[in-house]
Design brief:
Elements: H1 3-8, H2 13-29, E1 31-32, E2 53-55, E3 63-67, E4 74-75, E5 89-91, E6 96-100, E7 113-115, E8 120-122, E9 137-139, E10 165-167, E11 174-175, E12 189-191, E13 196-200, E14 213-215, E15 220-223, H3 229-232, E16 238-240, E17 245-248, E18 262-264, E19 269-270, E20 286-288, H4 304-307, E21 317-319, E22 326-328, H5 332-335, E23 342-344, E24 349-353, E25 366-368, E26 373-375, E27 390-392, E28 399-400, E29 414-416, E30 421-422, E31 438-440, E32 462-465, E33 477-478, E34 484-487, H6 509-517, H7 523-529, E35 538-541, E36 545-552, E37 557-564, H8 569-582, E38 593-600, E39 606-613, H9 620-625, H10 639-658, E40 664-665, E41 674-676, E42 682-684, E43 691-692, H11 719-722, H12 729-745, H13 760-767, H14 778-795, H15 803-822, H16 833-847
Parallel strand pairs: 3-5, 4-6, 5-7, 6-8, 7-9, 9-10, 10-12, 11-13, 12-14, 13-15, 14-16, 15-17, 16-18, 17-19, 18-20, 20-21, 21-23, 22-24, 23-25, 24-26, 25-27, 27-29, 28-30, 29-31, 31-33, 32-34
Antiparallel strand pairs: 1-4, 2-3, 35-36, 36-37, 37-39, 38-39, 40-43, 41-42
């Protein structure tokens, strides 16, 4: 039946009703519905009462709304949807629909809202949407659409004068923004962020005086602002073009955009100076100009623009990180809004002292001044910023003691004071900061080679480490290199606090191991330690090695000995380089390489091995997948154990990616490479494929120093590696996302259920948010159910669902969302590991 008949035969309601019913049933036929969300779509119920269906009042029993957001659905969008001729709203967001958006969708001439984000839709943007002249909102965000936004738009598209919102975010669209967008004279919101758009933004776009929102962030667009932009866009409220290739200067005419609330141009190539007349923008709330080149190198003080922001009384965020700004900090007391919640001036060339006027910014939640040239003491008035949650002072020249007033900051979540010249003891008052999840006091770094990560040579901090509050969690504090510290919890492996005259202080266990074996092991020693590399001591094997349990005679210390397979020439060539680089990596969640052995075996052949600390609880893979009878422990990891393991691994990757002299990629992250110590703390192992990555701005074709090819493991290796892509930290993020899904679903990415378009990522994504509990590891759910029942009995809460159940679902949903975002196919859409660590700690704190 043609659309004309279906849409105009209003005298025959039964006929029209049948058209809608048949269209919906045909739509259902092409849908994968694993959770039975559409079970009500049957002949026993009138279609107006089906789940997700809304019928109209004026045209009774005609479908005007189709709402199937987050139902865990997959499959294709049937072309028959074009027969719902009275449809006003279509919302199938947050599912796993794939294939193309059907051309027939352009038949829906009454359509006002089409919302399809967070699916896996492919193909090009249908030009037939030009027929939908009543459209107000188009949202195709977070899909896999390809091709160009039509450059030559049919004349009929010029009739879409009532479009009010177009959002095409989170896709892989290609091509330039068409010049004909300038014809959409009623357009007030244009969102094209997180795509693969390229070319210049047409100047006609800047002439759309109706525009209030422009969002073009995270593309490959280039060009510069027109000089009169402030005159042609008088109604603009939000401009977000971060992470592109824009250049040039901010025109002075910007000061005429009096309604501007958000200006986000971070991570481009804009140059300075920053116009002082930005202070005229009295409605400005967010100013993101970080990661550009505004530091001119000419002026004595590149920060003078801050003095003129005094009139921006609504300013809440100022992000000017990484610009090469030089000069002293501005007169904060006089010239920055007291409404400011985030002040980010890190990674510049700011010198002088931290002004006492900082205390006036009483609403600050985040203060970042890291990696500058600041000197003097940390001012005691910092303790008056009672709303502060994150404080970054690392990488400066600050001296003196840590003020005890920091203990007043009860909302503090992160405290970074590393790589300064601080001395004295750690104030016990910091233990009062009950929200504190990260405390970094690493001593100053003296890099000696590309492999060095915090070569902790300058030792300033001393005294006893407290044990109250955050100090009771060894995974959350970093005090490496401060060998004058003592005490603390046992997991820190610090010296005991004893009388200064005593020379018999016991060394930590790890330190004794290193002293016992470095420089004295040979093939014969390792042969004896492993019982002749006997099968009884065999732990496991990989592509390039075999691992054995060994016992060092001197003090019966248990170690793991990894014997490399030298038949592979790439292993032989990379052995020395990788060992030298990796021995300098120091993190509590890395399996420590205690020493290496390069010798001759009993057959006079080359022998090379690495000696690691031993992990008695074997690998995460064992706990997730081996049956209980295969080993002596139950594999029912509870929520906090799984979450702690996830945090441990994320913390390690964050360290490798961002806290080393050069970024390091693991390149083969999987459960069998995550080992668990006696306290169930996770340690990442097997750097046989690890790479030292060059800095991101290095343009050379050779981006790795190791010689081993990057393939990773099936199911965990990022898609771009399969297409010959170079190693980046984004590859580790993908592997981590898959690992995180496996930890909580108990399913390997190579499970036989994953065929065709269904994989572990899509399986989890389709379950969000309503069905997330249905995809969890059954052994995990069994243990959590037992815990919940015990709590209900103890607290007499047997009536109705427990509060813990709601907490559990919220917690799991947040974790799965992180995993899905990490394992996105496009590297540009994945999270950064530092954000992953922070979010997981927040989830843990909220659940606990």
């Amino acid at each position: 039946m043609s659309l004309a008949i279906a849409g105009n035969n209003n005298n025959n309601n039964n006929y029209n009703n049948e058209t809608d019913r048949f269209a919906l049933l045909d739509f259902k036929k092409q849908i994968y519905d694993p959770y039975g969300a559409l079970s009500s779509w049957n002949d026993a119920i009138h279609f107006c009462n089906w789940v997700g269906i809304t019928c109209g009042h004026h045209h009774r029993q005609r479908v005007i709304g189709l709402y199937l957001r987050g139902k865990g659905l997959g499959g294709n969008i049937s072309p028959s949807i074009g027969n719902l001729s009275f449809l006003h709203s279509l919302d199938i967001a947050n599912n796993s629909f794939h294939g193309k958006i059907p051309h027939e969708i352009g038949n829906l001439i009454r359509l006002q809202f089409i919302v399809l984000p967070n699916n896996t839709l492919e193909g090009e943007l249908p030009t037939s949407l030009a027929n939908c002249t009543r459209l107000r909102q188009i949202d195709f965000s977070y899909n896999k659409l390809v091709g160009k936004i039509p450059g030559e738009i049919p004349a009929s598209l010029g009739n879409i004068s009532s479009i009010q919102i177009i959002s095409l975010n989170w896709n892989t669209l290609h091509g330039n923004i068409p010049k004909s967008f300038g014809q959409l004279t009623n357009l007030y919101s244009l969102g094209l962020s997180i795509n693969n758009l390229s070319g210049m933004v047409p100047f006609s776009l800047y002439n759309l005086s109706s525009l209030e929102i422009i969002s073009l962030a995270i593309n490959q667009l280039h060009g510069s602002f027109p000089r009169d932009i402030g005159l042609t866009l008088p109604n603009l409220k939000r401009l977000a073009i971060g992470e592109n290739l824009f250049s040039g200067r901010i025109p002075n005419s910007f000061s005429n955009i009096s309604k501007l609330e958000v200006l986000s141009i971070t991570d481009n190539s804009f140059v300075g100076p920053v116009p002082n007349n930005l202070g005229n923008l009295q409605n400005l709330q967010w100013l993101f100009i970080g990661e550009n080149q505004f530091g001119t190198g000419e002026a004595d003080n590149d920060l003078d623009f801050v003095d003129y922001l005094v009139n921006c009384t609504n300013l809440k965020i100022l992000d000017a990180n990484t610009n090469g700004f030089k000069g002293p900090l501005p007169n904060i007391k006089a010239n920055l809004s007291t409404q400011l919640s985030m002040l980010l001036l890190g990674q510049n060339q700011i010198f002088g002292t931290i002004p006492l006027g900082i205390e006036n910014l009483s609403n600050l939640t985040m203060l970042a001044l890291e990696e500058n040239f600041l000197e003097g003491n940390i001012p005691f008035v910092i303790g008056k910023l009672l709303k502060l949650q994150r404080l970054f002072f690392g990488g400066n020249r600050l001296s003196g003691q840590i003020p005890s007033a920091i203990g007043n900051l009860t909302l503090l979540y992160e405290l970074h004071l590393e790589e300064n010249n601080l001395n004295g003891s750690i104030p016990s008052s910091i233990g009062n900061c009950h929200q504190l999840q990260f405390l970094t006091l690493l001593s100053a770094e003296i890099p000696s080679s590309i492999g060095d990560c915090n070569s902790l040579e300058h030792l300033y901090m001393g005294g006893e480490v407290p044990t109250k509050g955050i100090f009771g969690n060894a995974s959350a504090i970093f005090v490496n290199g401060n060998d004058k510290l003592c005490g603390g919890v046992a997991e820190l492996h610090l010296l005991a606090c004893t009388d200064h005259g005593s020379m018999k202080r016991e060394k930590s266990h790890a330190f004794r191991i290193v002293l016992a074996i470095i420089g004295v092991l040979s093939y014969r020693d390792l042969f004896q330690a492993t019982g002749g590399f006997s099968s009884a001591n065999f732990i496991g094997s990989g592509s390039f090695d075999s691992v054995y349990k060994g016992i060092i005679d001197q003090d019966e210390t248990i170690v793991a000995v990894k014997v490399l397979n030298l038949q592979n020439p790439r292993v032989y060539k990379s052995f020395i380089a990788d060992c030298e680089a990796l021995r300098n990596i120091r993190h509590r969640n890395l399996v420590k390489i205690l020493t290496s052995c390069s010798s001759i075996d009993s057959k006079r052949k080359d022998f090379k091995a690495l000696v690691y600390e031993f992990m008695p609880n074997r690998s995460l893979d064992d706990w997730l997948h081996l049956p209980v009878e295969a080993h002596n422990h139950s594999r029912n990891l509870n929520l906090l154990q799984r979450l702690n393991i996830a945090i441990d691994v994320a913390s390690d990757l964050n360290y490798l990616h961002y806290n080393c002299h050069a970024p390091i990629g693991h390149c083969d992250l999987k459960p069998s490479n995550v080992l668990l110590d006696i306290d169930m703390i996770a340690h990442v192992s097997d750097f046989g494929l690890a790479r030292l990555l060059l800095e991101p701005d290095d343009n050379s074709s050779e981006t790795q120093t190791s010689t081993i090819g990057i393939k990773g493991s099936i199911g965990y290796a990022t898609p771009e590696y399969g297409m010959g892509g170079r190693a980046t930290i984004h590859g580790d993020v993908f592997s981590y996302g898959i690992l995180l899904l496996e930890i909580f679903t108990g399913k390997r990415p190579t499970d036989q259920m994953f065929t065709d378009d269904l994989n572990l990522h899509n399986f989890a994504k389709a379950a969000l948010p309503a069905h997330v509990m249905q995809i969890l590891d059954p052994t995990f759910l069994s243990r959590e159910k037992q815990t919940e029942e015990i709590e209900e009995v103890v607290t007499n809460r047997m009536e109705g669902p427990s509060h813990r159940t709601d907490q559990l679902q919220d917690c799991i949903t947040s974790i799965i969302e992180i995993a899905v975002q990490c394992s996105m196919e496009s590297p540009r859409e994945r999270m950064r590991m530092n954000d992953v660590v922070r979010r997981l700690h927040l989830i843990k704190g909220k659940f606990s």
